Amino acid sequence: MRHYGHLTPAQRRALFHREPADFGPASPVRTLGVALGATLYCPATRPRLAGDILKQAAAGVVSMVLCLEDSISDAEVEGAEENLVRQLQKLLREQHGAEDALPLLFVRVRTPEQITDLTGRFGPAIRLVTGFVLPKFTAASGPAFLEALTGAEVMCGRRLLAMPVLESPELLHLETRGQALPAAARVVDKYRERIPAVRLGVTDFCSAYGLRRSPDMTAYDVHLVASVIADVVNVFGRADGTGYTVTGPVWEYFRAQERMFKPQLRNSPFSGRAEGLRARLIEHDMDSLLQEIELDRANGLLGKTCIHPSHVAPVHALSVVTHEEFSDAADIMGAGPEGGGVLRSAYTNKMNEVKPHRAWAARTLLRAEVFGVAREGVDFVDLLAAGLGASS
Questions:
Q1: Which residues form a coiled coil (predicted)?
Q2: Which residues form the domain of 213?
């Protein structure tokens, strides 16, 4: 699979200086962590789950979580498990020989026992599952989940990945955070080759204090949340080889809401070519989503948890590396590991300091590999319009 693979070859040639590369469940975990993009969560209770997966793949979704946890009630778990097994087996029959066209599929479980139980019940359909999402992950709860993952691998004879979700109160509360985050990181480090990304459960963090941000605000406007995001990136997101991809918080809104503040999108990027798109984004509160995606990346996060298909195209459009970013990153990396000094950007608008900017450049080139590099003059509006047009 690849990002923007749902567009025609002609559309991709018009948009990309370098097209996104192919990747799949067997790719290196570091590549997969960057490639996740907008990870669409879907309750495992959906009666047409197999068809939903195919529909979202055709619209450009490359990663999905089939959820047995918070998205369903306690009374629905048994039925959801049965439906999930049935739907994945159906999907395997229908896609036999074409599994590469499916998104990366992760199952969000409630307990460690579900990992081994479901792996056995899936039968041959386990080969459609890339891995499992581990909720409420802490140093105390995490080992049982990861040991169950290892057992499931032995059972099915293939690699299974895990995405821990950091969302428990002890990771948020000031008096325990300083010890709880490093302790959780030490557990994750033992399974580094199985962890493509660490996810943030910001809704649960807000719940601990009875908070909920409005559609006019980003997660970074809620200072309590912003502080824990900073600490998670500090522990899990370092660029010294010890870090992981940390994904952005969920955006909860997908229908028009009563607005209190002015729109966040300027007119000029849309002027003369996409005024209707700007109005559509503002009408559905996507302007705040776009701002949050930009703030995610500025704060060290990549990718995003999504609960509605309409959120996918904005996440992916802002994940594509711009021609200017690529030019700067390539120049910095081209100076060599022993190089130094300052280079003037080819765009003549900034300095590129080789040693301090080298880690940024390496990350940018990895993102360029999986999301592609936009042509000079192509911006997020063009990419967003193409993505929304292909998925509508």
A1: none
A2: 21-320
